[in-house]
Input
Amino acid sequence: MTTLLRIDSSSRLEGSFSRRFGDELANHLNADRTIIRDLVKNPVPHIDVAAIAAFFSDPTEHGEAEKVATTLSDELLKEIMAADDIIITVPMYNFGIPSALKAWIDQVVRIGKTFDFDGQTFSGLLQNKRAFLIIAYGADGYTQGDFKMADFVKPYLSFVLNFIGITDITIIPIEGTNAGKEAEAETHAQAVIASINPHGQ
Ligand SMILES: Cc1cc2nc3c(=O)[nH]c(=O)nc-3n(C[C@H](O)[C@H](O)[C@H](O)COP(=O)(O)O)c2cc1C
Output
């Protein structure tokens, strides 16, 4: 029984490259169960002061505000913990990730839940999960070219996933969606998807 968690973050519900290849990869992986988190249709709120207080304190000491603030985060954590595979579909916005996706990350990167700190070192707590990052870029030159240094999507997402223990990461870039390079990018993305083992591990 395999579980797929799919996270979508393009503001475009129609005509989105990242969402389209998310569909293709989800079909290819053919998981027994899929959990969908569409961060545009159902935005996750930014963490507030009650959430911060709650994340860094003992749950037995939580008042009503802290309990409310952790309810959604706990649900999002359950989803990521249940997943064998995680697809994150991402458009590059202003050289980084959409704020909708950052809000989700702020809810799931939690001490004692997805990472730990023993006073000296940090350790990721998630294990045996694969992540697939489908990243759509309007321009090209991010993988090899002049814009390599301007890609804050790939290194940021890879680092944060590693930080919480997800080290098996496949990146599927779709570059040049606004630069007449769609056909080339699509052929490349399809080839990467075809090379992925649906059952993994
Ligand atoms: C607000 C906004 C900011 C963008 N910033 C960038 C950028 O910094 N670099 C880039 O190459 N493309 C940029 N683009 C283009 C998108 O990355 C491109 O259209 C991509 O295909 C969007 O993903 P989607 O097709 O899944 O919606 C931007 C698009 C929008 C709407």
Observations:
- Residues 10, 12, 16-19, 91-95, 136-139, 177-178 surround flavin mononucleotide (CB under 6 Å).
- The beta strands are 3-8, 33-38, 85-91, 115-117, 122-124, 130-136, 168-174.
- The chain has a mean pLDDT of 95.
- The radius of gyration is 17 Å.
